[in-house]
Amino acid sequence: MLAIIIPYYKLTFFEDTLKSLANQTDQRFNVYIGDDASIENPSNLLEKYIRKFNIVYKRFDSNLGGTSLTKQWERCIDLSRNEEWIMILGDDDVLGENVVESFYENLSEIIKEESNLVRFASQLIDGIGEIFSNVFLHPKLETAKSSYWRKLKRKTRSSLSEYIFKRNIYLQFKFRQYPLAWNSDDMAWLMFSDFKDIYTINSTVVLVRQTHLSISGKKDNLKEKNTSQLMFLKDLMNSRIIKLTKKERIELLYETEVSLKRKQKLTLVEWLQLAYEYIYIFSAIAILKFIRRFLIQLVR
User: Is residue 231 part of a domain?
Assistant: First the structure.
């Protein structure tokens, strides 16, 4: 059975999310909604859908997402029973009508491949539900490391809502806490895969919303995003599970540096954090190139 977990906070697009669940061609799922002490009470809206699919709703007494979004995800998962598979669906994202059906149609092959992670194709939508991206497709079977590399190089995208993962692997690793939970999902997929391939279903799409209300769409949180990315980088470098070669470490460092600079000019602290990682790897050529890039920024 599949548990669909919704960490709820904003009412604005929530009905679109619920409607997409009511329209699923396969209703073999349970929905668990954890209300993060929101000022926007969804009770009246939930009354419209309470008989259309199985809903468990819990309003928490305190807001947790403001300080730790990953802890909010985890306490919402704790509402669920013993379903083997879990999806965390954003309260503004939308499932294609045959997402659940496609999951069950592919389940025997997913089990055969021993995959802990299932991923769907995705598209981006705006505040009025209009699609503004191509469909992001993926290899049917792909290592989590390869998937993250493609994302880092801006060849694809990835977020929380288009994944389904096994409960037992989640309980083993949980979510790593970063500011805004930025990169927390990336680390989860790297850990949850547990050296097995991600299994992709490209025949249906999860619509992921990007607006000025979403973390990914906001522009006033770049400092927190950069801090998160550097924390993630350090964890990735030091991970005993995600083993990187020296060449991969240098490439990861460079791509991270490029990604950070794309958002805003790096601070001295951020340069020093990157410098520490380059020195730790100890590649003379990579260090010299890094120093050159740093000096170029200084004189600009």
Answer: no
